[in-house]
Amino acid sequence: MNHSNFKLALTSVALSAALAGCGWGIFDWGGGGGGNNDRVTVVGTIRDVSPETTRDIVVFVFNVSGNNNNGNGQLCPCPELPCNLNSGEGVVVEDGEVSFELNRLANGSLRVVFLLDNPGNEADATIDDGDMVAILDDEGCDLSNVRNRSIVTLDDLDIEFAPIDIDDDRCGNGNGNDDTTTTTEDDSCDVVDPPAPGRARADSIEIDLDNDDNDDNDNVN
Question: Is the pTM of the predicted complex or chain greater than 0.90?
Answer without folding.
Answer: no
